[in-house]
Design brief:
Chain lengths: ~250, ~250, ~270, ~270
Amino acid sequence: MTTATGYTSDEMMTVAAAHALTSEMACFVGIGLPSTAANLACRTHAPGLWMIYESGTLGTRPDTLPLSIGDGVLAETADTVVSVPEVFNYWLQPGRIDVGFLGAAQIDRYANINTTVIGDYADPKVRLPGAGGAPEIAASCREVVVIVRQNTRAFVERVDFVTSLGHGGGPGDRERLGLRGFGPTRVITDLGVLKPDPATRELTLVQLHPGVTVEDARAATGWDLAVSPELATTPEPTAEELSVLRSLTGRG
Amino acid sequence: MTTATGYTSDEMMTVAAAHALTSEMACFVGIGLPSTAANLACRTHAPGLWMIYESGTLGTRPDTLPLSIGDGVLAETADTVVSVPEVFNYWLQPGRIDVGFLGAAQIDRYANINTTVIGDYADPKVRLPGAGGAPEIAASCREVVVIVRQNTRAFVERVDFVTSLGHGGGPGDRERLGLRGFGPTRVITDLGVLKPDPATRELTLVQLHPGVTVEDARAATGWDLAVSPELATTPEPTAEELSVLRSLTGRG
Amino acid sequence: MIVPLDEGVRELVGDGDTVALEGFTHLIPVAAGHEIIRQGRRDLTLVRMTPDIVYDQLIGAGCAARLVFSWGGNPGVGSLHRFRDAIQHGWPRPLEIEEHSHAGMANRYVAGASGLPFAVLRGYAGTDLVGQTETIKTVECPFTGEHLAAVPALNPDVTIVHAQRADRAGNVQLWGITGIQKEAVLAAQRSLVTVEEVVDELKPVAGQVILPARVVSAVAEVPGGSRPSYAHGYYARDNSAYQDWDAVSRDRERFAEWLENEVGAQAPLPGKAG
Amino acid sequence: MIVPLDEGVRELVGDGDTVALEGFTHLIPVAAGHEIIRQGRRDLTLVRMTPDIVYDQLIGAGCAARLVFSWGGNPGVGSLHRFRDAIQHGWPRPLEIEEHSHAGMANRYVAGASGLPFAVLRGYAGTDLVGQTETIKTVECPFTGEHLAAVPALNPDVTIVHAQRADRAGNVQLWGITGIQKEAVLAAQRSLVTVEEVVDELKPVAGQVILPARVVSAVAEVPGGSRPSYAHGYYARDNSAYQDWDAVSRDRERFAEWLENEVGAQAPLPGKAG
């Protein structure tokens, strides 16, 4: 859906997500929306961004957006290609990666992520693809950014299945489990940006995209959404950002 | 020392050791005498011998004898070169290697091997290089062949330090420790060949090189050496074997 | 050593076997998977980090009793509908699953390739996988006392991979994204490698992985054997085939037609839902 | 990123540090070792699978308080006489040792590179290393109950390696026998890489290992920096230098002369034997 100002809410979300990345970072990139946002960042304000994909491509810089996590273009443009055990054991696990970029089918109040099943595990309503690299990306990256469209199917009080731990049930849970990364530091949606409250770790709306209201965000959230007293408005995408994004996604 | 028949006792030992290898085997090769014998086998009766060195060179076929375990010629002529962790973890440990070819500074009645210290560990008389890959080669290869010059300094009742386990204190010791390989199946010296007795696992003289007597062998052994009732005589090296060996060692 | 594909599958894959067809998006052994379907293998435990459409096909054709995996989807497209139908409705037969994360599966293959009974990793903490998957336990570091995740080794009866080249002796060469293939082959009792071509000599390529002939049971020359996946240096991924699969696989009848027309196999008789 | 060797060593290596100079016969960082001697570093814990003549030199020069290793010798020649003198007579100072097998050391680096506190292997069973080395313990498989060896991670303060090439951004490329270098660098807090040459672009080479600039603290261009070891594609091993070292190192005075003439460092004052 294209808004009055000439961009879609998905485009706004992707641009906002790209802004979570800087040129100095190493980013573990999930496929889909995260990959689009990371590649956009690379081509705009974060040319030094070091992207790694779980297929073992380190420091890759694809000239077209990969459809899968293991497209040939990822290998051709990488600093080096390593085996799958190596990418997890030598690169992700020791905490070398600054930010993990993940999607979600469900996300809850404490930013726990479900990509496994809707309904009961043994007798699911919808069977989803499952964990992939996400549980350990969520555990070991210094921080995690989640990109997900905001609606009451996705934003639920409690996820049906914790595929990847966010902030568990609140402060101290990650530390108790020995996780070294901070966990989700922001959730970027098509409506705005949520961050965990520093004290309670509960996801709090801190930013709305242009034209979106607090009521829109609350209506799209399956729990009583906390709103920051310092709620900001996301800057609109620049013409350059939109143009690069559209050349990436082929919607130019 | 060249014998009357025109070859040295070291040459006899090396040729006898080469005969432990066949064309179908994979052999983990230690440097020095084992390497010379394995390369001789490769060039004579065992052209298919698959040699691996702990430097990570798999299926190597050096055209000159390497001085060190990691000479460039080993890499240049290998089927593939892998990392040091890989050679130990993926190739040696799972029991893929038929025979380990080892040297020794001391060896005892049960074919336990010392390459660590002569004397007390904390205050050694002679500090030797140490273990290297030998403990796990001795543990994980299907069988082990030891090549060592026979004299009372080397052939001792009990090694000062067990660097690599042979048959421990006798039958059942390896099994109790969970070792999967059979351990030393023959010890080839400049005087003859010793094999563990099937019942007691004690090293027993089964073969003498031409011109060597049982008394010579007993005098060179620091324990009361058992002698097989079916003591055989090693065939003399062939002219071809000697010629290939001398071209390898540069003593042509 | 070099055999026709049907012979290789017949000799190496039996009913009830644990079979891993590996390939991380790249070099997926699709032709070998179709041959397994044609030969009507049953009760397989299928193992794979990223079961995609060829596993959807094997499951839909009724070959699998069990799936050990970490991500089951149609990459870049969405879900696997034959997989879903088996899980949600037991069609054409119920499918047991054993579910891990990529890090866990990768380390299970590493342990299998290393002759170890288990692997240690930082993983799974706080996730619901722990409660659903019996093959996730903890182990204590004997030096620091820290608790870490432990997963058992994977040792398939047979691993099947696709590679760019083999020589006549059966040494295999692959490059590009090489994923978990080396570990999957080394972990297995037997292995079958389909290749784009058999050559006289394997010319070195940067980034290559070599599987020495000693660890390869059989090689079959199957040009295009990983289509619609890709073979780096040979052909590109057919993204539209992945997209088209979505519609075919959503419907049992369309799937049955596809099976007959494209694989030359009969559609499975519907089994009883578990 | 690209610095002169003396600056790199000065900034990265401090007294008392745990320092690994790795290289499995090939690509040994000899020039960097000599620079450590020249700068007079003391009380180092030196780590290396295969301490050879450059470690003999560091030990003889009095830089080391401790050695963690698995095989200490002059490859193809015999023993290390400065090492022996330190162990047997405490000259120029006593040397503590922590002794492992290659398999154990390799896995300790792997654990270090992997951010794990320990590694599991089939090793050491029945050997006397177990009784002399506190860093060998056992761990029980939580699935099979089997007992296996456990060794703690190695995480040097600084790892130094030599490589063929780096680009100007500090990405490093090495090939030939690449040993344990990748793991040693990834396990370390800091790393210094000496290279044969700094180039504009790293052309791919078969068998290459790439160390991305992110894990390299500094690169120093030191052509010939691994002599008398060798650099695959650049120069061959100087076997006679290894043979000659035997005589030089047997005698404290000849060693002192060598130190002054070849390294430009003062001979150490003899310490008290432990």
